[in-house]
């Protein structure tokens, strides 16, 4: 009868055109955010609260009313202290789907697992915040942390997460560790008092070895011990060179743990800038480890050792390491059981340091002797801007010493103020230098007096960029003495400092200095930025014997000699040896061995010989080293056989063709810029 046997099956498929009946595009999270207004947000939130049968939050309604510019991100959504249950969290979605925020503050909002996971999912989906505070929420549980980890992993905009006093326990830590290992955006992570000691810290430290984005890690108040926990932190520092701030205050690191951390610090060629070890029961033994480590650290700028019983012996152990270190700018030694003996050791470090900016010595028993040592150290230190000491003088057996303490405290503060003013002036000079270094400058001073051209072009003017650049390179110098000499130059009163190029290029006084304005000459300076933002100033300088020889000639002969010879061709007849005042004061190796040009037969013996002797045997009047005369290529001879001697320089100084002079000097500055530094 045509029927199928029992158990037989037949399968048919629709045609290709009919196999897909329809498709749905994924929902756009911002479909509600187009041209939204404050009234719409308010209405949507109130309707959601009514639908979910939950109370509206008055604090939130007030903030919504104050919203002004709704794009791109509103500064803050502050829900701190408000109790948020699951329904209240669901109602917040009507806000998150319409506006974004820079900061979402959920501190102490009594979040439970359901509410926390719902909120974190919303923040991840709508990319609601760049800074998120979930601190003081002790009951978000495993599911809450799992949602938080998913948010950290998926959200590209979240840069700051504050989870202080929010326990991250063993069963929740793996989710967060996995997120941190592949996190692409988180820069700052606060996990203070999060019960991390043990397995959670091990998981986090292992994951952070591979993290290249996190810059600040705060792990205070976690009862981290001096064995396993410190070993994990030491390993983290060995492999991660991207974390810049590590805050370990109020833990139990101990001297044994500091040894592990120091091993990691030795591997930090770049990276860690701030290390906080406040209140970790460290003693003089730990300072011995740290003292041996500090000379190897190249990036550490802030070291806070406050509230540790270091004592005088600990500071002595630390002193040589600090002197050998070239990076520490801020040092915290508050409440470290120091007395005058320890203050003397600290003062020795201050006197040796050319870069220390701030030092905290509060809550120590530093009396008259220690204050005297610190005051003396500040007289030779030109970098320290702030030295924190107890305001009230300490009790002394001799009553007059209390007044002495007050006077010493005032001296110390005045020394810091002096350094602050110097630092501000230096910063202003560097800013001017950066503005002026963008293009070369040519300055030609016109004659102002009858007897001859006076030297005023470089007075407080042209040579200043060289001085500024020399000061700007101070921190890059490898020699402490160089920096101290530079710092010493800054302390001189401006009215007593030599003018112009003398001030810029004379690191030591001349045996017989002469005032520039007494020299009858014209100065032409060309300054141009070179490699490394150095300013090269090429200046024509007349030496002392030449001036004396010229003065010995009769007035008519001197006038005749001052007249330039007519050039045979448009090209300048001679390329004079111009002195180059280089910012770093180094003589190029390629030019150091070149011999000076001998005077030719055609040159005037009465003028040529004394000038040549002056160029190579005596110091130049403005303090330039005579070796700088060899820094430029040899001068080419012209048709008359004249070489680059002082006679040619004199012709150059009196030439009427200013256009040729500028071309010649520009060419000289370009040659100087090509010399190796």
UniProtKB/TrEMBL annotation:
Listed Acidic residues bias regions: 461-487
Keywords associated with the record: Leucine-rich repeat, Protein phosphatase inhibitor, Repeat
Region entry Disordered, spans: 452-677
Biased composition (Low complexity): 585-603
Compositional bias of kind Basic and acidic residues: 514-524, 648-659
UniProt record similarity statement: Belongs to the PPP1R37 family.
Protein name, as recorded: Protein phosphatase 1 regulatory subunit 37
Originating organism: Sula dactylatra
């Amino acid at each position: 009868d045509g029927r199928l046997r029992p158990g037989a099956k037949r399968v048919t498929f629709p045609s290709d055109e009919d196999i897909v009946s329809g498709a749905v595009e994924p929902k756009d999270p911002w479909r509600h955010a187009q041209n939204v207004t404050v009234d719409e947000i308010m209405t949507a939130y109130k309707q959601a609260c009514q639908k979910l049968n939950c109370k509206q939050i008055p604090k939130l309604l007030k903030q919504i009313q104050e919203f002004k510019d709704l794009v791109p991100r509103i500064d803050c959504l502050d829900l701190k202290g408000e109790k948020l249950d699951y329904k209240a969290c669901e109602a917040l979605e009507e806000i998150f789907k319409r506006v974004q925020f820079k900061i979402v503050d959920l501190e102490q909002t009594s979040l439970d697992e359901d509410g926390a996971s719902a909120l974190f999912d919303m923040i991840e989906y709508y990319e609601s915040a760049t800074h998120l505070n979930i601190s003081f929420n002790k009951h978000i549980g495993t599911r809450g942390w799992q949602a938080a980890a998913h948010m950290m992993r998926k959200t590209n905009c979240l840069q700051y997460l504050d989870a202080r006093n929010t326990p991250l326990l063993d069963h929740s830590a793996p989710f967060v560790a996995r997120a941190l290992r592949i996190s692409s955006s988180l820069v700052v992570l606060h996990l203070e008092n999060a019960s991390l000691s043990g397995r959670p810290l091990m998981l986090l430290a292992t994951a952070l070895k591979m993290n290249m984005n996190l810059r600040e890690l705060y792990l205070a108040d976690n009862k981290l011990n001096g064995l396993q926990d410190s070993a994990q932190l030491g390993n983290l520092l060995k492999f991660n060179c991207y974390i810049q701030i590590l805050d370990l205050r109020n833990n139990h690191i101990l001297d044994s743990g500091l040894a592990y951390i120091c091993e990691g610090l030795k591997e930090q060629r770049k990276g860690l800038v701030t290390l906080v070890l406040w209140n970790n029961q460290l003693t003089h033994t730990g300072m011995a480890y740290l003292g041996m480590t500090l000379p190897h650290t190249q990036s550490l700028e802030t070291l806070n050792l406050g509230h540790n019983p270091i004592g005088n012996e600990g500071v002595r152990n630390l002193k040589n390491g600090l002197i050998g270190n070239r990076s520490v700018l801020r040092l915290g030694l508050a409440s470290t059981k120091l007395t005058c003996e320890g203050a003397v050791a600290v003062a020795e470090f201050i006197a040796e340091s050319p870069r220390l900016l701030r030092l905290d010595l509060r809550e120590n028993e530093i009396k008259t002797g220690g204050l005297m040592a610190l005051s003396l150290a500040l007289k030779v230190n030109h970098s320290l801007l702030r030295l924190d000491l107890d305001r009230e003088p300490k009790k002394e057996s001799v009553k007059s010493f209390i007044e002495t303490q007050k006077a010493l405290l005032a001296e110390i503060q005045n020394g810091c103020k002096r350094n602050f003013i110097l630092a501000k002036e230096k910063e202003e000079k560097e800013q001017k230098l950066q503005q002026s270094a963008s293009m070369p400058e040519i300055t030609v001073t016109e004659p102002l007096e009858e007897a001859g051209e006076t030297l005023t072009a470089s007075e407080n003017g042209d040579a200043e960029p060289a001085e500024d650049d020399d000061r700007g390179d101070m921190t890059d110098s490898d020699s402490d003495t160089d920096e101290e000499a530079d710092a010493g130059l800054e302390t001189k009163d401006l009215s007593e400092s030599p003018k112009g190029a003398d001030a810029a290029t004379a690191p030591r006084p001349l045996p017989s200095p002469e005032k520039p304005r007494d020299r009858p000459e014209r100065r032409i300076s060309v300054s141009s930025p070179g490699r490394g933002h150095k300013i090269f100033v090429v200046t024509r300088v007349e030496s002392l014997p030449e001036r004396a020889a010229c003065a010995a000639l009769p007035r008519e002969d001197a006038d005749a000699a001052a007249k330039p010879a007519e050039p045979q061709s448009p090209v300048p007849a001679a390329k004079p040896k111009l002195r180059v005042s280089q910012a770093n004061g180094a003589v190029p190796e390629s030019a150091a061995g070149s011999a000076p040009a001998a005077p030719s037969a055609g040159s005037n013996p009465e003028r040529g010989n004394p000038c040549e002797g002056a160029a190579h045997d005596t110091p130049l009047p403005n303090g330039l080293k005579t070796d700088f005369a060899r820094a430029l290529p040899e001068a080419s001879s012209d048709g008359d056989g004249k070489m680059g001697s002082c006679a040619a320089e004199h012709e150059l100084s009196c030439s009427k063709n200013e256009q040729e002079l500028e071309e010649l000097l520009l060419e000289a500055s370009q040659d100087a810029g090509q010399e190796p530094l």
